[in-house]
């Protein structure tokens, strides 16, 4: 069982003006340094809003036009600032294939492959992520029932199949980036191939 090891206060969000507490853990299965961002002491709520956000350096930090990860992260932070929440930031770059492999996949996508085809061409499965550490993190925080912020059915199943009761699912918007290298095809592929519960009509353009 993972245990909370340290808590540090910081400010996050697009303007770095939203207060949050960051918690680190020890004893996680995969050895990665996953962390939890806790807003408004949400770990003390009976059914807090939760998001499992897989790290995306290119999207979260450098605002890549190929995905909407950074926009989803900011949307989650802003909602959790309003109502409280726990954001599990998981070190799972590129759906688990790592940063350098993801950059190789970007090259293949530029040649016409979609995100899943590119991963498969490199010898990887569609999605290598395992969310068992996220379950351990929630249990370490004393959280057993949640409102889950996601469009990904795999994340929903991971919690339900491992003893976390999901009381409600809150979807994020479709953050479509307009322009020559927009991400609409990427989002449409996630819906068609990955069965993501994403309403392409629920659009926020940037």
Please give a handful of descriptors for the protein shown.
alpha/beta; 7-stranded mixed β-sheet; globular
Please explain how this structure is put together.
The chain is α/β, with parallel strands linked by helices and 206 residues long. It is built from seven helices and nine strands; from the N terminus they run ββββααβαααβαββαβ. Strands 1-2-3-5-4-6-7 form a seven-stranded mixed beta sheet, sandwiched between helices. Strands 8-9 form a two-stranded parallel sheet. α3 packs across α4. The relative contact order is 0.16.
Q: What is the mean predicted local confidence, pLDDT?
A: 86
Question: What count of structural domains?
Answer: 2
Please compute the radius of gyration using only Cα atoms.
17 Å
Fraction of residues in H or I helices:
25-40%
Helices and strands, in N-to-C order?
EEEEHHEHHHEHEEHE
Please identify, by name, the CATH architecture of the largest domain.
Answer: 3-Layer(aba) Sandwich
Structural class: alpha/beta
- What would CATH call the class of the largest domain? Alpha Beta
Largest sheet: 7 strands, mixed
Shape: globular
Specify the number of helices: 7
Low-pLDDT windows of residues:
none
Give a brief description.
A 7-stranded mixed β-sheet has the order 1-2-3-5-4-6-7, with helices on both faces. The chain is 33% helix and 26% strand. It folds into 2 domains: 163 residues, Rossmann fold (3-Layer(aba) Sandwich); 32 residues, no CATH class.
């Amino acid at each position: 069982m993972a245990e909370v090891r340290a808590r540090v206060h910081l400010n996050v969000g697009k303007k770095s003006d939203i207060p949050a507490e960051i918690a680190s853990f020890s004893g996680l299965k995969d050895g990665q340094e996953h962390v939890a961002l806790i807003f408004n002491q949400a770990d003390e709520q009976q059914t807090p809003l939760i998001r499992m956000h897989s790290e995306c350096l290119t999207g979260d930090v450098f605002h890549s036009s190929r995905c909407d990860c950074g926009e989803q992260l900011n949307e989650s932070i802003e909602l959790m600032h309003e109502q409280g929440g726990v954001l599990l930031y998981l070190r799972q770059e590129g759906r688990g294939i790592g940063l350098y492999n993801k950059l190789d996949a970007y090259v293949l996508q530029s040649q016409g492959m979609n995100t899943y085809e590119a991963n498969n061409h490199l010898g990887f499965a569609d999605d290598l992520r395992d969310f068992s550490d996220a379950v351990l993190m929630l249990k370490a925080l004393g959280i057993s029932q949640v409102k889950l912020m996601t469009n990904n059915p795999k994340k929903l199943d991971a919690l339900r199949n491992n003893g976390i009761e999901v009381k409600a699912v809150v979807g994020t918007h479709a953050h479509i980036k307009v322009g020559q290298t927009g991400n609409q095809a990427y989002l449409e592929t996630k819906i068609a191939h990955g069965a993501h519960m994403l309403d392409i009509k629920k659009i926020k353009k940037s």
